[in-house]
Automatic annotation (TrEMBL):
<dbReference type="GO" id="GO:0042302">
    <property type="term" value="F:structural constituent of cuticle"/>
</dbReference>
<feature type="signal peptide">
    <location>
        <begin position="1"/>
        <end position="15"/>
    </location>
</feature>
<protein>
    <submittedName>
        <fullName>Cuticle protein</fullName>
    </submittedName>
</protein>
<dbReference type="GO" id="GO:0005615">
    <property type="term" value="C:extracellular space"/>
</dbReference>
<keyword id="KW-0193">Cuticle</keyword>
<keyword id="KW-0732">Signal</keyword>
<dbReference type="InterPro" id="IPR031311">
    <property type="entry name" value="CHIT_BIND_RR_consensus"/>
</dbReference>
<dbReference type="GO" id="GO:0031012">
    <property type="term" value="C:extracellular matrix"/>
</dbReference>
<feature type="region of interest" description="Disordered">
    <location>
        <begin position="164"/>
        <end position="187"/>
    </location>
</feature>
<dbReference type="InterPro" id="IPR051217">
    <property type="entry name" value="Insect_Cuticle_Struc_Prot"/>
</dbReference>
<dbReference type="Pfam" id="PF00379">
    <property type="entry name" value="Chitin_bind_4"/>
</dbReference>
<dbReference type="InterPro" id="IPR000618">
    <property type="entry name" value="Insect_cuticle"/>
</dbReference>
<feature type="compositionally biased region" description="Pro residues">
    <location>
        <begin position="173"/>
        <end position="187"/>
    </location>
</feature>
Amino acid sequence: MKVFILAALVAVVASQSYPKPQYTTPAYPAPAYPAPAYKAPAYPAPAYPSPSYKTPEYAPMPYSFNWAVKDDPSYNDYAHQETADDKGYVTGSYRTLLPDGRTQIVNYKADDYTGYVADVKYDGEAKEYKPTYKPAGYPSPAYPSPSYPSPAYPSPAYPSPAYSAPKYQSPSYPSPAYPSPKYPTKY
């Protein structure tokens, strides 16, 4: 409660206006600048003709389409169907096979009043995805190996470097002088 009262008191004090200092007009006069020595050019305002055509108003055009893909080896299974009327009301649905084996089905409606409204459903049970495709090994080429001999490269004219491993002294450790442990006897 004390914190609340203290915060309220700080807010009241901070909201009060402090007296502002009174500034007097400066003792020196404002500088007078001479008029420019050149005449500013006068450009006419650009005059563009108004467009001679009227902006067309488009009315919704009725349409209907559908398509589907079903390719079992590549696990592609999806489809889309949509229809629209001349008032801009669109209905449709699409489905796709998900990697977990379920089919996602989306039914939707769209118009200028309610916007896009979708109903999403899933068909089937989710299961672990295990691909069955196993790539085969590459076969040997059908063309014969080359008949020309492999090139013989001359040995280099410079001597090969001689590497010698440094000789390190093996470390020696003192033997431990620890007493052997004493275990208690049975009681």
